[in-house]
Each structure stands twice: as C-alpha cells, then as structure tokens.
C-alpha cells in the first residue's frame, strides 16, 4: 500500500513527508513524537489565568468580526463558559475561525489573558467537542513546512490500520515471559496515549526492545565473522617513540585492544569512542602504519574534503618516516587515474580520502584495514561499498558520540568496543562566553590582543552568501575593513580542492591570522596555535555542533576562548549549556532533549527506517532488563527471535555491524 492511498494525503503532502524521511507506511508509525502535552485536565476561566496553556470548553455566542489593515488582519468572536464571557482573537488568520458556529460548544487549548475588563485568548487551537486531540495526552511531532501535528497524527492513525505483523522482533511467548505488550499495542499507545502510566510503559518497552534488537544483531553477526590468519610484526615502542607526545592511559589501552583484535582469528570489527579532541585519529593512524609495514594496504574514509586534506597534510611526514607511501584521494584530486593505478598495483600503502574511495574503479591490491572517521556521516551503502574494496578487511570505526557509562560497561562484555576517556595532557583551558552581537567591537579588541601575542583565530558562520549580516561573505568584508594589517582568509565547501588545501596549509603554518569559515571545520581540524573560536548566529547551531566547533581550539598549551555570538542572550538560552560544560556526554544528552531522539549505540543508519530511540534516556533498570532478556534468549539459542525482521531492519552486510 502506498502513502498516497491514505485519506487526505496528496502528492504535495507526500513530498513534505519525504523531507522527514517518511516514504512508506511503516516509516509513518515508526516516526516517534518529540514530546507530549498533557491536555487531559479541563480548566475553567476563573482558574486558567496562570500564563500556561490549558484545555477549556466554550460555547460560541457571536458571529465573527474581522478588521483589516494593509498588512494585518484581526478576527474575533465571543464565547461563553457558564456566566463568563471570553473574546477569542485570531491574528492574521481569517479562515480558521469560520468553522466556529454560533450555539455550538468546542474544545480549546490555549493560554488566556486579562485585557482590561475582558478575558482573551489569541490564536487558540480548537476542535469539535468529540475530538480526542484536546482532552487527552497529545503527542507533538517534529514537523516540516506545510505539515501540521494533526496531519501527522491522522496519517499515523491510518497507517497503523495496516501494521505489518511481521515487523516484530519477539514472539508472543517471549513477550509473555517478560510481561511485555506486543509492538502494535505499544505503538498505538505511543501515538494515541490513553494514560500517562500506559504511555510510560509503552515508551520503556519500545526502548528496551530497540536496544535488544541491536544487541542480538551485533552478537549473532560477530559470531559469524570470517576467519583470518594475520600475523603482524612490529616494535610498538619504536613507533611510539617517534611521537612528540605520550599517549594517555586510555589511548594506550585502546591501541592495545585494537592490535590484539586485529590479530585474532576473527576479522576485527571494532568501535572506538572518544570525546572531541581525545586523540582517536592518532590511534587509528598507528594501527594503519603497523598494517602497512607488514605489506598490507590501509585506508581511512572521512566525511569532508577539508578534513581529508587536513589529515593528509598533518600526518604525511609521520607516515613517510616509516618508509611508507601515503596519498590523498578526493573528488578533486589531480592525476586521479594515475593515483588509482598506483593503489591497484599496491604502490600506495595508506590512502586517506572521502566518498571518492568508494567509486567503482578504485581497486586495492591488498586492503586489510579500513578506518571510518566520524562514521555517522556516512550511509550504510557507502560503508558497505568501501568494505567490499578489501580482502576480508579489518574494520575500525571512530565516533565522538558518547555512550552512557552504565550501558558501555555492560556492552563491553558483549561487543568489541574501545573508549578514550580523557583528553591529552598539556591542553590549555577553554573558556566559553556568550556575547551580544551589539558588543562586537569589544570582541574585536580581544582579537587584536590574540593576534599580537602570536595566536590564530577561527570565525564561523552558518551561511556563505545569504542576506544575513553575519554570512561568511559579509563577515569577511567586515573583518577585512576592521583589521587592515591582519592576514584574513575565508574557507567554505564551494572552493576548489586546491584552494582549500592551500588555505588549510597556510593556516596550519601560521600564514593566516583569522580564518573565516563555515562548519567545514567542525570535525578533525587540528591547529594547536589557534586559541580563539568565534561563532556567529550561535543559536542556529545544535549543541553538539557547537561542542565540535569549540573542540577545534584548546589543542595546544595556550588558554583558549570560545565566543558564542547572538542577538539575544538570556538565562534560559541553550547556549548556557555550552558555556557551563565541556563534558561531551552531558552536552549530547541535553542536545538530544532539545532536538529529539537519535541512536547512539551502534550508530547504524537505517536509511528510511525511523525506528530510532534515544538511549540516553534509558534508565539503569531498563538497561538491566534488556540484558536480562538478551541472556535469556542467548541461553535458548535465540528461540523466539524473528531473524527475517532483523535482516530487513538492518539491511546491511552482516560483516559490518558497528558502523
């Protein structure tokens, strides 16, 4: 059945749904609400004047009046509640109130205010008296243009009538053993709650089953990993002595775990976790070097060309000091065919690249290790295409997405995970401040002081050439005018690769004082001399993005400063979360609370399947119950598990499970 078969869903609405990655019926009922509003308690006019929205029932007493101006319209009518009267006002909406009929009683969900002697409400939400959307617990969904909460609720209700009975993980016996409801009942409760208690139970069960689904998949598929007989010869001390710093304890521990896994009888498939700036990349690079000095090819795929260039430039000399050959492969690489021939003939030991690595005509002679950096930015098919380039290659995935400690410790007994838990020593303190745009001139004075002391500055915008006064192009003009004798350059995704490479090299070499950029510098850029990050329109960024951007500074011994600029700053601003914390886990947790849920366990991207659950909200007793269910199923050889659903759900080569 197609989405277009649903009542009220035409081609335009389908296009808008696709922007939410909703393409089929199961995508609809697996599209979870962002939050809920409790509209179940009915208020009267005498008790509702507290500044909050409430549920009321009023009888319409007058016709609709509308006043117009050139750019504005005000429509209003009067309603009653027993012996009290209220004025219902609609600003710039002359159509909605036309459905309100004199003498009829309707449900309203709104805030009421006192205006002189009258009680008023403005642009209320209203329904017929027998409509359940007011008077109940109401789910609130993430929306896009021209889609309302009512639209989604209606479509989801219809889609649930065609729920696929095969889309379940566990059979009835297993569910009954743990006193769990079936998935259909839980989905019905999620989208159309009957009580807070039932909703809480349904949410908990869906989260537990979702985590259980990943644990089963990863465990079973890891057991089927291909056999390998790999003998790596190396002197780890000789390699580490070439570094100009000492690894942190958890870096060293992670390195040993990865090397041990690489030479085990099963092909490695390991996830390396660590916060921004914790030093994941150098660990991966050391492993790549060890593979390559044993005559195996290795590659690292990164999400952006800017990051690929940075990693190549930064690590080229270190790699070549071992007599190895390293190359950069992006869509803009010159003499690409010549480089591809060298890779195919085994003349290149280590390749750092972007999506260009997965093009059909890129062939390796003996690829044995694949590293995926910031892998959540790649789709399943892209990672699968890269895996197929290898000859039963080992796979290492790096992510800055934090995993709650309780969950990590339990998973550690089951899965191949390594975690870097501290930042390298000698890093300078990072101080974060909120700055009003109107105070920009005082910030300019601080920038001058930083430049005079020999430091460098990042300036970040959320757009390139928009009309916004804080677009990259406008900032470039403003900074050039203000700092006449300071070296300023701009960096963004539309530049040619050769231009990006030159700019990054010049900034790394200290030839640029101020780099004005878009978020292309968000991941991986590492210039220890840069100690100032200025982010304009900071409210337009997610907290995790701000944390990633801030992670570009504080990489040297200098005290560093991050300035978040916005037109308004108040105590309730989300920017205070960044100001008051450098803890990636706490920031990510609060970011998901603000922006909605997302997977963090295996960070598997499911394409069009939106069955995503926020594991940050899993409580310890829920995690314990999930692992209890897992152990129960494992002891019974996973009897009662619907493996055909697992295969359909993950839609992924079984050798790749942690990326």
Describe what this molecule looks like in 3D.
This protein has 659 residues and is α/β, with parallel strands linked by helices. It has 21 helices and 23 strands. 35% of the residues lie in helices and 19% in strands. The strands form four sheets. Strands 2, 3, 4, 5, 6, 7, 8 and 9 form an eight-stranded mixed sheet that branches. The protein has a seven-stranded parallel sheet with strand order 13-14-12-15-16-11-17, with helices on both faces. Residues 596-616 and 652-659 have low confidence and may be disordered.
Provide a concise account of the structure shown.
The protein is an alpha/beta fold and 659 residues long. It is 35% helix and 19% strand. Strands 2, 3, 4, 5, 6, 7, 8 and 9 form an eight-stranded mixed beta sheet that branches. The chain has a seven-stranded parallel beta sheet with strand order 13-14-12-15-16-11-17, sandwiched between helices.
Give the termini distance in whole angstroms: 32 Å
Q: What percentage of the residues does DSSP assign to strands (E)? A: 15-25%
Compute the number of helices.
21
Question: Structural class given helices, strands, pairing?
Answer: alpha/beta
Helix content: 25-40%
Radius of gyration: 29 Å
Number of strands: 23
